Amino acid sequence: MINKTFAALEQELNSCFLERAEVIRGLLVAAIARGNILILGAPGGAKTAIAECLAQQLGGVFFSRLLTKVSTPEELFGPLSLKALENDQYKRVTARKLPEADIAVIDEVFKCNSAVLNTLLPIMNERVYFDDGSTPRQIPLQVLVGLSNELPDGGTDGELAALWDRFDLRYTVEYIKDERNFAGMLQLSSAKPRTTISLQELTTVQKQAEQVKITGDIIQALVRLWKELRAQGFIISDRRFRNCLRFLQAHAWLEGRLEVADDDIVILSHMLWTEPEQIKAIRKMVLGFANPLVVKANEIFDGALEWKAKLTATPDGAERTALATEANHKLKAAQRMLTELIKQAKAEGKSSVTITERLAAIQAMNEAVVNTYLLGL
Ligand SMILES: Nc1ncnc2c1ncn2[C@@H]1O[C@H](COP(=O)(O)OP(=O)(O)O)[C@@H](O)[C@H]1O
Ligand SMILES: [Mg+2]
């Protein structure tokens, strides 16, 4: 039942935001795993809009704040309590601030200064707030979303390394790439998702996700992945790997599974990279473990994109018409290969969602090639 509610919300979010399927999935996984998720990307890529839109669909107390270099602890954690000061106690009035929030969105999160950072880290790490500097208090925070246009000053291993490290899931978003999606974005209505999920429902789901089984096969797969990552020089902390399990369970839960399947490993491609230049290599490796058919589908898709780029770069004329004829053949061949992959995925009991998306994109691309370059419509 709740599974269906989540699936409906995910679908609605995907129709409000184009080419944002992975981030949307990440946000839902983070909410179920009670994690911290970072979304990086250039301004105007719908980072804030997606995070706030999801927050509005989830019940519970929502806290959001845009950090600047001079943000004060008051802004995030509340003003000092005068009453407490009278009794020589140093306490904050945390009502409606981060320590009492269920969902938090922190924009420009890497503008964080050290006065804020010291209190923020334990909040992210253990969901603990140190009230008067010594007494820890468990806080209700379910999911923390960090947004940024840029990497931390001084890089991911600089002063803000600890903050960077606390983000379990890290996503980078780019502007819309596909022409149709771009046109679609221009025509989007202002309709918001309808499905809502109460805090109580979320808590129930979190408990169910904790029960999702991690089989010996999955452990074996993770060990192989760990070995391969090391062999290629990617050193990932034991803590991060251990932490991955919760997110695998959350992902499996979203897929309606009672045990983690190798398809769920895709989520790790957003958990195991540290430096942006590692994203591509780690993604390829992780996807290879998750579902080799998806890797093949992505290669076919990349090939199709190259044809499209070639055509766009060629001026109108006989040469372009010849090129378009060839592209049309190649794109048709690509569609046949993807159709085969979908069959194979189904036969092997693997997810065919990504492959089907790739197929639809290539179909659209081919139609555009025929209409624009061959029929001159
Ligand atoms: N991929 C997308 N799908 C739908 N709308 C988008 C997309 N990218 C940008 N927009 C539009 O641009 C607006 C600005 O996005 P915003 O959340 O302010 O960006 P950011 O926080 O990344 O700077 C959004 O509210 C939305 O209307
Ligand atoms: Mg923004």
UniProtKB/TrEMBL annotation:
The keyword Hydrolase applies. Transmembrane segments: none annotated. Coiled coil: none annotated. Its EC number is 3.6.3.-. Keywords: Hydrolase. Residues 9-180 form the MoxR domain. Gene3D superfamilies: P-loop containing nucleotide triphosphate hydrolases. GO terms for molecular function: hydrolase activity. It is an enzyme of class 3 (hydrolase). Residues 217-286 form the ATPase RavA-like AAA lid domain. This is ATPase RavA. The gene is ravA.
